[in-house]
Amino acid sequence: GVQTCALPILAAIAQKAALADSMLRRWRHELTTWKLGRFIRRLGAEVDHLTVVSEPERQAVIRMGVPAGRISVVPNGADVLDLARPLAPQEPDTAVYSGALSFSANYDAVRWLLTEIWPIVIKARPGARLVVTGSTAGVDLTSLPSVPGVVFSGFVDDIKTLVATRAACIVPLRAGGDTRLKVLEADRKSTRLNSCHLGISYA
Question: What contacts 115, CB < 8 A, 6 or more positions away?
Answer without folding.
Answer: 145
